[in-house]
Every structure is written in structure tokens, then in C-alpha cells.
TrEMBL record:
It is an enzyme of class 1 (oxidoreductase). It is found in: Membrane. The chain crosses the membrane at residues 12-35, 47-71. This is Zinc transporter 3. Keywords: Membrane, Oxidoreductase, Transmembrane, Transmembrane helix. PANTHER family: ZINC TRANSPORTER 5 (PTHR11040:SF35), ZINC/IRON TRANSPORTER (PTHR11040). It comes from the Eukaryota. One of its GO terms (molecular function) is 2-alkenal reductase [NAD(P)H] activity. The keyword Membrane applies.
Length: 89
């Protein structure tokens, strides 16, 4: 992402972070496929873990919407005038 270039990270750090991102998704898919044989989706433990992960995912989406997306809008001079109205929505 472009933000990494502006954060003054070294090129090696950016490369390592990119490789980590590229490898974790396939590893997660592989782990998910591997545990399907022993996973009981109706067990109390599985339901609690699923609820915790769903709550964490929802919080990440709320954070991105409020901080990353709305913050850029409030920096716009035109939005500063009507910004207080948007808080209620």
C-alpha cells in the first residue's frame, strides 16, 4: 500500500510485511481445510470462539469506517461546516 512508502519504512521491512501478508492468507485457508474433519460447529467452545471472532471482525470494520474513511472526509474544508450534522448519522 502507498501508506507504507510514506511511513519511512526501509524497503526490506516493506518487503517482509508484504511477504507476511501474502503467506498468511494461504496458510489460514490450509489450516481451515485441515481442521474441517475434526471441527464440530455446534460445540459450545466452537460457538464461543466464532462469536469472539465475529465481534473482532465487526470492530475492525467499525474502526476502518470511523477512523480511515470519515477522518478523510472531515479534513475537507467543505465538510467542516456540516461535519457536526454527520455525527448524528
Amino acid at each position: 500500500e502507498v501508506k507504507l512508502l510514506h511511513a519511512n519504512f526501509k524497503r526490506l521491512s516493506i518487503t517482509i510485511m508484504g511477504l507476511f501478508l501474502a503467506l498468511t492468507t494461504p496458510m489460514g485457508i490450509g489450516i481451515g481445510i485441515g481442521i474441517t474433519n475434526v471441527y464440530d460447529e455446534n460445540s459450545p467452545t466452537a460457538l464461543i470462539v466464532e462469536g469472539i471472532f465475529n465481534a473482532a471482525s465487526a470492530e475492525i470494520l467499525i474502526y476502518v469506517a470511523r477512523i480511515d474513511l470519515l477522518a478523510a472526509d472531515f479534513k475537507n474544508p467543505r465538510m467542516k461546516k456540516t461535519g457536526s450534522l454527520l455525527i448524528f448519522f
